[in-house]
């Protein structure tokens, strides 16, 4: 079974961490992680493995 990933991040001015709505392959998740980390007000971007259907 293929592993599935999402990205999570901290948004300046928000108490709760944000989570991507879509799931990615590991390679795509790393690409989106870099894009998200480059956005203003974003920090602590992580790639997390999720179970299919989560």
Explain this structure to me?
With 54 residues, this protein is of the alpha+beta class. It has one domain (4-50). 22% of the residues lie in helices and 35% in strands. The protein is built from one helix and three strands, in the order ββαβ. The protein has one helix spanning 26-37, and strands spanning 4-11, 18-19, 42-50. It has a three-stranded antiparallel sheet, with helices on one face. A hairpin with a 6-residue loop joins strand 1 and strand 2. The radius of gyration is 11 Å and the shape is flat.
Structure keywords:
alpha+beta, 54 residues, 22% helix, 3-stranded antiparallel β-sheet
Give me the secondary-structure topology.
Layout: E1 4-11, E2 18-19, H1 26-37, E3 42-50
Antiparallel strand pairs: 1-2, 1-3
């Amino acid at each position: 079974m293929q592993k599935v990933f999402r990205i999570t991040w901290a948004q300046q001015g928000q108490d709760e961490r944000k989570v991507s709505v879509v799931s990615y392959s590991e390679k795509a998740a790393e690409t989106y992680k870099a894009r998200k980390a480059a956005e203003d007000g974003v920090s602590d971007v992580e790639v997390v493995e999720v179970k299919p259907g989560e």
